[in-house]
Amino acid sequence: MKNVILVTDATIMGGLGTYLLEVAQFARNQGYNLLILMDNNQSTIPLYNNLVNLGIRVIREKLYRSSATYKEIYQVVQDVVTSFAPDLMHVFLGSPRSAIIPRKVALDLNVPLLFTEALVSNKLIIDKEQLKEIKFFYKKAYKVFVLSQDNFSILENHYKLSMDNVIRISNFVEVNKSVAKKSFPKPKYKAVTVARLSEQKGIDILIHAISKLPDQLKSLIDFSIYGDGEKKDDYIQLSKKLNVEHLIHFLGWKENILKVLSNYDLFILPSRFEGQPHSLLEALSFHLPSIATNVSGVPEILNNGEYGYIVDSENSDELMQAIKLFLDDPRKLAEKAASSQIHLEKNHDKEINISMIMKHWAEARSE
Hints:
The protein is of the alpha/beta class. The protein folds into 2 domains: 3-172 and 349-366, 3-Layer(aba) Sandwich (Rossmann fold); 189-347, Glycogen Phosphorylase B (Rossmann fold). Helices cover 43% and strands 17% of the residues. The protein has helices spanning 14-29, 45-53, 70-84, 100-108, 128-140, 149-158, 203-211, 215-218, 232-241, 258-261, 278-285, 298-301, 316-328, 330-338, 341-347, 350-366; strands at 3-8, 33-39, 57-61, 88-93, 113-117, 143-146, 166-168, 189-194, 221-226, 248-252, 266-269, 290-293, 309-311. It has a 7-stranded parallel beta sheet with strand order 3-2-1-4-5-6-7, sandwiched between helices. Helix 1 links the parallel strand 1 and strand 2. The longest helix has 17 residues, at 350-366. The chain is globular, with a radius of gyration of 21 Å. The protein starts with a strand and ends with a helix.
């Protein structure tokens, strides 16, 4: 039996949850016997339900560092690992400082450790003790997966981590082989953003950009935002303060966003920092004209502007101008998005990229 335990202490799933779910489903179909150990925060329930519906065993416990003591978390992870006796542990990280304790347990119990860095930023505050532990994990892990070259560079040059065991495997998406071509121009356009309502995702920057659009253009477009988070009330109040609440629809989290993406004309991701955003890959897979900020893995997805407009982060004026460019000539941005097909198939194909992860699983099990 090929026993593998997948672990995450993330309390807000988003792209990380989608990534874990896709890996788990693929591995299950490859004959792996999986156990998922995840945090028991309320927001993880949708991911839990999806995993259980696939017939995968899931254990939810207090894993996040502020929800239990170090000793309590260590004991929980140790008991689960000892009972399940996995051939390897793969940990899915929301940041380099995530899941410190589960990674330590794996090494203490001599379980081959692999982990994925889903989000890397040089803006993170990591104290000396945490950084010391993180450096130890990088030296001792069988393999570390990063999603973008930018993330690789930050880990190597900013945090000074050993990169001997680090491999870049890009984020992935189900690449659509046949996408209906959008008809432009239109009398009214619909823009969409899919993101957690948190400081990181820059929704406030988008709201400011919308408020700066000329009045005649505001009548041509409205904006839907799918996602939940701690900043939701703040963003609703900001939209009212800037008199654009009638243009912005906060629609909450949607389980399967793919079902609605094709209904929109423009995708906008105004993030302050990223790993390699899955939502942007999904948008491109539908050839959805896209605008995103120049952070982390975004330029790699958009090939430095070949497949979409890239704007500076924290710059609502520039974002407004990009939206205006789309409204002035929507066909130009649509053509950019449609031309991404070969790029997605070569660099972000789900089956190819997850198969690369499975290859390293197999090698770790055989050693």
